[in-house]
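ARCHIVE CARD
Drawer: 12
Card no.: 0347
Subject: one protein chain, sequence and derived structure
Cross-reference: see card 0346
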Amino acid sequence: MKKQALLFSCICLLTSALNAQKNLIGFKSDSKQLQTEKAFDAQLNAKRIGEHIKQLSSVPHHVGSVGGKMVASEIAKVFTDAGWDTKMETYQLMFPTPITRTLEMSGVTNYKAKLKETPLKEDATSNQADQLPTYNCWSADGDVTSNLVFVNYGLPEDYETLAKYGIDVKGKIVIAKYGRSWRGIKPKVAQEHGAIGCLIYSDPVDDGYGAGDAYPVGPFKNDQTVQRGSIMDMVIYPGDPTTPNIASVEGALRVDHNDAKNLLKIPVLPISYGDATPLLKDMAGPVAPKDWVGGLPFTYHIGPSASQVHLKLAFDWKLRPGLDVIATIKGSEFPDQWVIRGNHHDGWVNGAADPISGMSAELEEAISIGELLKKGWKPKRTLVYCAWDAEEPGLMGSTEWVENHAAELQAKAVAYINSDGNGRGFLGAEGSHAFAPLITEISKNVIDPQTKVSVFERSKAARAVKATSTSAKKEAFASTQYPLGAMGSGSDYSSFIQHLGIPSLNIGYGGEDEGGEYHSIYDSYDMYKRFKDPTFEYGVTLAQTTGRVVLRLADADALQFDFRELHKTVKGYINELMKNVDQLREKASVENELIKNKAYIYAADPTEKLKTPEQVADVPYVDFSSILNALTKLEKAAAHAEEVKKSTDANKLAELNSKIYRAEQSLLTDAGLPRRPWFKHSLYAPGFYTGYGVKTVPGVREAIEQKNWAETKEQISEVAKSLDKLSSYLEAL
């Protein structure tokens, strides 16, 4: 009897669990969709992904190069062969490359920098012709000579430390470590403080033998590896600097690059830690603070240097063709609703990891979708698959395309799904928070190839293990929702969401693919196969993840936007901002007490001769009531939108869908963000001093950080208006 009772109990529990299962979000019945996804998965091929990575990274393929044209053509061929309607859109893009690069030190130390990476026998493509030299794109032309000052990571707070030592960088050349922020922030802050030139190097403690074995033994930077990269001030606006707000088509009206508001005015050069060593060893002045010290085998000093540094740079400032590949499958029911998928194809050199690993996953999706077409499946909504050129210099290919098609995109784009580099490890996803339930659902469907659990479970376990407190570990392990991140910048989603308000996602895998090859000649197929994703299985995992997003949005009965999640997320942001103001007020009070009692002077080593800081201004009361009222209204409106979706019959869902995917555009402000009006989204933007890193509710957050209380009040009002606008839109559904 006990066994029968136990069996009956188990059957009841199983029946209850099955009955509790819900259909896929957005589908009245999910069986057909699951069959489609099963057929989609069956066509994905890791071996083919590896072959595409090898082929497309076989030559350097930067903007305007012979290799770049070859890669774009090969990608177009894959799309066409898979049955997609494929075309190439060409934009005329400003892309400067070096004519002159000189870095030398003379005086106590005499040294001429090599400024060249060493080809390796273990890396078959590291000695090819047509490699771009080591440089920072969008550096100004310049010929400057001065002493050198070490500025740690070159962040605003590092200059506050320099001021305490009485060190001024005005008229000096600075040297900063890569890390802690996007590279373009370092020369930007240096220029603001009067520096006449900037060098950036990767310290081995962060990205070299201090992190692990150096290449080719291990994946980390050797002493000659250099990170190329753009230093365009993309937080002002991305895209071609000479055509702000308009597309760089043939004959477009251009501003002179010297007048472009997002380009700096000082020469900037990246160097290896091999070239940085003699420069840093020459430093005089105070010993660097302990948290500034890197991994090189000598004492770090702040400077100025004992010797003089000469930096001379000149560039060609030419227009070059940027080739965007656009492949389309027309929707069978809603051809004017577009689900857009993209990854860039240009690299600084061979770019196996960045971007070809992500591009190859996108191609695999396109091939598999092509096979579905051959078997009679057709998407309800139009699919648009894009391969962007010129992402590396400043998101140019995608931004120019978006600016060229802005009105049509705001009318038709359901969503934009982005990927970039990809590797072995854990799911990373960020985007519009109305998509949070969709990403949670998909992450529970996709299986991690190493552990054979869902990528959701693996991601959750990683967060729990890495959490720094017991309560945080418990919270992470108990979570049932994937913590969708917010979007900053650094890849091709920026113009879609932050300029046009098109709902977007950015998805990739990583965390077990660390290395120092980024933007160097060693970002190669050989490096990728040894250290990044040796079996190319995570290329399949990325294709399964992004492919499901595409397929579910393409065929959904009710589009999967849940603005209740957006409300919950924004409420968290506002609570955080309110706490930030309270903490600033408390900090100001404590700081002023320390200054009043000369604590900094008494606590310092007398030989450091620190200056007494100035009194900190008091923090006034900040009124968040308008935003809090707007959030209350949004909570009700979001709940209303969900009820409407549930109660709307199939005949009227099409009309509802056509409205709901445009709802996020309500969060755009007419004026844009202060000092950078191109960025119009009131909730997500790259930080003015973080670059790639996101600032949520950026107008308010940055005004608080800058202690600009008048602007804080103004931006609170702007955000409240945007939230009210979204609420009114949802209430009208």
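Annotation on reverse: The chain has three domains: 43-94+319-448+483-555, 98-315, 563-731. Confidence is low (pLDDT under 50) at residues 1-21.
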